[in-house]
C-alpha cells in the first residue's frame, strides 16, 4: 500500500513533461517536491536539501511530526535515485556517480536521525544565566530533548550565542549550554534551543536508545 503510493508519486513523469525549473528545457525524469524536474535539477536540489537538513539536525531538535516528514523525504530521495540509476542507462558516468553520492548522503542523514533521537519530553529544570550583572534563574521545562541539547520554554529574553546553565530537578545534575535559536510557539511562549557545551548525554538517552530497536526502514 505504502509502496504503491510512493511509486505513483515518484514515478517517471509522462514523456511530454519538461523540467519546471525556470529556463530549463530538459525533459523531466524525476520529481522534487511536487515539481517534475530533470535529473540535473533533481540532483542539485536534493543534495542541497539533504545538506541543509544535516546541518540543521546538529543544532535544532525535531519534533515527532518533523521526524516523520524527514524520514519520508529521505525515503523519497533514495527511491528516486535508485530508480534513476537502475532504469535509465543513458546517463553518463558522472551522473551515475552523483546518484550514488545522493543515496549515500541520504543514508548518512538517516543514520544521524537514529543516532540523535529527538524526543518530545517534558523534564522540569532550573534555567540560569550566570553572567555578572545579568544573572537570573527560572523554573521551566523542556519540550524536546536530544543527546546534544534541548528545546525549552524560556521567559527571559536571551540571544543566540548566550551561555546558560541547566539544572535537572531530581538528579541535580547541571550542564552549561549555548543558545542556538530563539523563537515563539503558537501560544506566544518563547522557545529556545540549546546545545550542551561540556556535557554528553545529560538526559541519559543513549542507554534508552541502545535498548530501543530502530523502526524498520528507518
Ligand atoms: Zn532542469
Low-confidence stretches: 1-11
Query: Biggest sheet, in brief?
Result: 6 strands, antiparallel, barrel
Gyration radius from CA atoms, angstroms: 22 Å
Query: Approximately how much beta-strand content do the residues carry?
Result: 15-25%
How many helix segments?
Answer: 5
Q: Which key phrases capture this entry?
A:
alpha+beta; 2 domains; 5 helices; 24% strand; elongated; disordered N terminus; binds zinc ion
Structural commentary:
By secondary structure, the chain is an alpha+beta fold. It has two domains: 2-115, no CATH class; 119-209, Thrombin, subunit H. 39% of the residues lie in helices and 24% in strands. The protein has helices at 2-10, 39-59, 64-87, 93-115, 205-211; strands spanning 30-32, 35-37, 119-120, 124-129, 136-145, 149-153, 163-168, 174-184, 190-196. It has a six-stranded antiparallel beta barrel with strand order 4-5-6-9-8-7. The protein has a two-stranded antiparallel ribbon with strand order 1-2. The longest helix has 24 residues, at 64-87. The model is unreliable at 1-11 (pLDDT under 50). It binds zinc ion. Zinc ion is lined by residues 19, 21, 24, 26, 37-38, 40-41.
